[in-house]
Amino acid sequence: MPDPTPATDPYEPRLHVVLYQPEIPYNTGSVGRTCVALGAKLWLVRPLGFQVDHHNLRRAGLDYWQHLAWEVVDDWRALTERLPFERFWCFTKFAKRNYTDARFQEGDVLLFGRESQGLPEEIRTAAGDRAVSFPTRSEVRSLNLSNCVAIAGYEALRQWESAG
């Protein structure tokens, strides 16, 4: 059965959150819930490690999934045809720039990689100074994907509210 994709967005997003080839339905469900809270649109780039009608995805998103603006695209090329790459902020542990140094604007795209492998090197390299990271101690390999989306999304919101 193909993944269902909504016909229309329930709102005009202030922010776009992209999960590049996500693998864990609970993380994606939690990210969807955060996107509803932020007024962000969720984009999922195939291949996915689950079906978007998977019960764990819906369960993690609880009853918020019906309010989520979301879309599944077949691959990276299809995504970049829809969203301008110059608006992308790539979140990766390999970036030298801290996420708090980024200046987010409404309409920006927050891009996160696979839980097991992150973003491909060619995407990280193409991002240049728009590649950012979260400070972590060396004992930690990475943060949970859904936590990263929440941190980044609410930092963007904080910046917008501070700017008036």
TrEMBL record:
GO BP field: wobble position ribose methylation
Location (main, coarse): cytoplasm
Reactions that this protein is recorded to catalyse: cytidine(34) in tRNA + S-adenosyl-L-methionine = 2'-O-methylcytidine(34) in tRNA + S-adenosyl-L-homocysteine + H(+); 5-carboxymethylaminomethyluridine(34) in tRNA(Leu) + S-adenosyl-L-methionine = 5-carboxymethylaminomethyl-2'-O-methyluridine(34) in tRNA(Leu) + S-adenosyl-L-homocysteine + H(+)
Locations listed in the record: Cytoplasm
Keywords: Cytoplasm, Methyltransferase, S-adenosyl-L-methionine, Transferase, tRNA processing
Entry keyword annotation includes Transport: no
Record-level GO cellular component terms: cytoplasm
Domain tRNA/rRNA methyltransferase SpoU type stretches: 15-154
Binding site for S-adenosyl-L-methionine: G113, S142
Keyword flag Cytoplasm: yes
Entry EC number(s): 2.1.1.207
Alphabetical list of InterPro entries matching this protein: Alpha/beta_knot_MTases, SpoU_MeTrfase, TrmL, tRNA_m1G_MTases_N
Entries under PANTHER family matching the protein: TRNA (CYTIDINE(34)-2'-O)-METHYLTRANSFERASE
HAMAP family, per database record: tRNA_methyltr_TrmL
Family: Belongs to the class IV-like SAM-binding methyltransferase superfamily. RNA methyltransferase TrmH family. TrmL subfamily.
Protein name: Putative tRNA (cytidine(34)-2'-O)-methyltransferase
